[in-house]
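BUG-286 | component: ligand-complex export | severity: low

The export step for 2,5-dioxopentanoic acid jobs runs without errors, but we want the raw record kept on the ticket for reference. Input record follows.
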Amino acid sequence: MQLARILDPQGNNAVALIENRTVRQLALEGGQYRSLTDILESGDPAAIAQFLIDGSQRPREVDDVTFLAPLDEQEIWAAGVTYIRSRSERMKESQQAASFYAQVYEADRPELFFKATPHRVAGPGQPVRIRSDASWNVPEPELALVLSSRLRLVGYTIGNDMSSRDIEGANPLYLPQAKVYDACCGLGPAITLRPSMPPPEEIGIRLAIRRGERMVFHGETQIKQMKRTYQDLIDYLGRDNSFPKGVILLTGTGIVPGDDFTLQRGDVVEITIDGIGTLVNPVVQG
Ligand code: DO4
Ligand code: MG
C-alpha cells in the first residue's frame, strides 16, 4: 500500500491511498487525521488510511492523477558516501579531500547533511534545478526513508539529491552550496508503507537520463550494495536532534555518472526503485 499527496478532480490538494494502481482519495475534513503527517504519525498508517477512504469519490487510475511531493513540513536530510561508487567518485572529484571520503566510508559515524526544506523540493513532474553558477551537475538517485517525529521508519519514497560536483570538488566546505538551493531535491511519487516494501536485498535502483529522444545515461545499483543499515543512519540522525514534524532521510547514491557527464537544461531524469515506482523530473537551470 502507498500513500500520496495528489490533486483532486477540482484541483485541490488531497491525500490518497494507492493499491493495485488504483487511487482512493481520503476524507480528512474535521476528523482526528487531517494531513499526510497525521496518518504517518499514527500507530498503524495502513489501517488508518483504509478507514479514511472517501466513499463519495470515485477511484481513479494512477495514470489519471497528478501527484505532488509526498510531504508536509518534514525536513529532508541525506547520508553520503554510503556506497563504494560514491566513495571512489568523490575521491576523484577532490584529490585534496580524498582521504576524508575514504575515512567517512569506513568510519562508524556516517556522513549526514541537511538537504532541503519542503519549499526546495520538486514533486513528480516538477523541474529540479541546476545551479546557475555550477558547470558539472548530476542527479543522485537515492532511497528515501520516511520517518515519524519519533524516528519510526514508516515508509519509503524516491529522492533525487541534485548535486553540483564542481562546487563540492573545489572544496568540501562548499558542500551546503553544492547540495542546498531552490529545487535541489526531487521527491516522490508516493510513499510505500513499510509492510509493503520488499526486503533490502531485493530492491534495485535504476537511473535513466534522457536528452530529447536519446538516453544519455543509464545505470543501476542495489540496496544490498549499501555499506550501512537503515537503522544505523536513523540512529545517528536522531542523536541530539529532534524532528517535530517527522523527517525524510535520503540514504546516499550508488550511481554516479562518469567524469565526462554533466546534466543539461531540458534533460529528463527518471529514477525507478523497486517497490515504489518511478520519479520523473525535467531539469532546468538558473
Ligand atoms: O560527500 C558528499 C555527498 C555524498 C552524497 O551525497 C552521496 O554519496 O550520495
Ligand atoms: Mg547524495
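Assignee comment: Attached the raw record above. The chain has a mean pLDDT of 97.
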